[in-house]
Design a protein that fits this description.
Layout lengths: L1 H5 L1 H33 L4 H15 L3 H11 L9 H27 L2 H9 L4 H31 L14 H7 L4 H30 L4
Helix pairs in contact: 2-3, 2-5, 2-7, 3-5, 4-5, 5-7, 6-7, 7-9, 8-9
Length: 214
């Protein structure tokens, strides 16, 4: 317990850093994922192509490489931001590709006749997607979206290697101070467990309330 009690503020700072990364990157991933899923099912070919390229590139790019591209590449084009924002961009964009595919799979579970009926009533693509298709698709994708955001929370550990304050990065300071490395990582693991279990519990509540009855 000495590792935790003697360095509670350090652990707390890292824990809050990971929570902030997770919350902001999750919000970005959900928004971008929704937009890209809309593109992938849009009747406009150029939008479908853009969405396909976005998903293909990001899903097949290692997250560490994406961090390097964002952290080192964007400043060369004059975009200079705090490292925390760069980390949110990298995590959010990367995870958005997976959110997109989860949403698209949910959209594909909605019977085609639903969309055809909406169009026959004169509804536009945007109206059909927003009022008919997505509300039904959302109910089927709650669990996989929860799993995707849990993966995002764990992936945020990579940000520590790029001077971003987060939970895993606390081990460096504690190791230099001579604390037992095993217990250092035990308490780090407990911190991640709290975060992931909270996300899991939140999506479990959402699934119980809005999910499709099995």
């Amino acid at each position: 317990m000495d590792v935790l009690t003697d360095n509670f503020s350090l652990y707390g700072k890292g824990f809050l850093g990971t929570v902030e990364l997770t919350v902001y990157a999750s919000a970005l991933a959900l928004v971008l994922g929704f937009v890209m899923a809309s593109f992938r099912v849009a009747p406009v070919g150029s939008l479908r192509a853009f969405g396909t390229v976005w998903v293909t590139v990001l899903r097949n790019t290692p997250l560490t490489l994406l961090f390097f591209a964002v952290m080192l590449g964007l400043p060369r084009f004059g975009l200079v931001l705090p490292f925390e924002l760069f980390a949110v961009l990298a995590l959010g964009c990367y995870t958005s590709a997976f959110v997109c595919e989860v949403l698209r799979s949910g959209i594909n579970t909605v019977p085609r006749g639903q969309g055809e009926a909406a169009r026959s009533l004169g509804m536009t693509f945007t109206q059909t997607l927003g009022t008919v298709v997505l509300p039904q698709a959302f109910r089927t994708v709650i669990p996989p979206i929860g799993s995707t955001l849990i993966a995002l929370a764990k992936n945020s550990a990579i940000a520590g290697a790029f001077s971003v304050t987060e939970l895993l990065g606390t081990y460096k300071t504690l190791s230099e101070l001579g604390y037992n490395i095993v217990w250092t990582f035990v308490w780090i693991a407990v911190g991640y467990l709290i975060i992931t279990l909270t996300i899991s519990a939140l999506f479990h509540v959402m699934e119980k309330r809005w999910g499709v009855a099995r």
